[in-house]
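Re: the 221-residue chain
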Amino acid sequence: MAREKHSILFATKNPGKLAEFKEVFSKLSTDYEIVSFRDLTYDIPDCGETGTTFGENARLKVCNARQYLRGADKNLIVVGDDSGMRISCLNGEPGVYTRRWNGSEMTDGEIIAYCLDKMRGVNDRSAEYVTYFAVLTPDDDIAIINGENRGIILERSRRSSLLPGLPFRALFFVPELSLMFHEVRELSAEKRKGYVLGHEQAIQQIITYLDKKLAENLPEK
């Protein structure tokens, strides 16, 4: 008999991140339902990203969400993430500081323009897209899971690739496949020609981790 689905609260108010997480997760498993803050009947206050690493920020997000959950929602599995670009020629910038890269809050368009300006005339355009997930289960265990992918930053943005909340989607290119990174993610594994998606790999690790936890001691809904 099929088990009842468990719900995962993805702790973000970023619509782009939510859409991507739901899309990838649904391809890898149908055993979980992904819910967002919008599905709750009350507000969850914003969490300040005060960590100095992606992992710290992901942990802060799930702990913040958990403390405000009410009633039966306290049994939700909570997943939070922090991700960003580390650009080689900029000594790993912007890292965890994407939204405040220039010292003030920036829009997607401002981030793109600022990045291209800082890299004008630079030949080494290699970069690494990093994602860290924190997985908080009702027994208060927290797992940190990460994935990464290498590519390059284009000299001009591809506005058709832009998704609100994900500015580097319009800049991050995979030379091995001559495709934007988000286009690679839409390919079947066979068409990726061995290129491994770190983000997808990390989500698969989340599923494996949760499947094991559920088999052990998580409460049934």
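Strands lie at 6-10, 32-35, 77-87, 93-94, 126-136, 142-153, 172-174, 179-180.
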